[in-house]
Amino acid sequence: MNTEYYEKQKINNLITGLIIFFAGVLPLGSILYSYYLLFVRQTNTISSKSQETLTLSSVVVLLLSIFIIYLFLSLKLEIKVNNNGIYFRFFPFHKKFRLIPFTDIKNFRIRRFRPILEYGGWGIRYSIKRNGVGYTISGKYGLQLELHSNKRLLIGVKYPEAILNAMNLFIPEKHILNQNE
Question: What's the pTM value of the predicted model, to 2 decimals?
Answer without folding.
Answer: 0.77
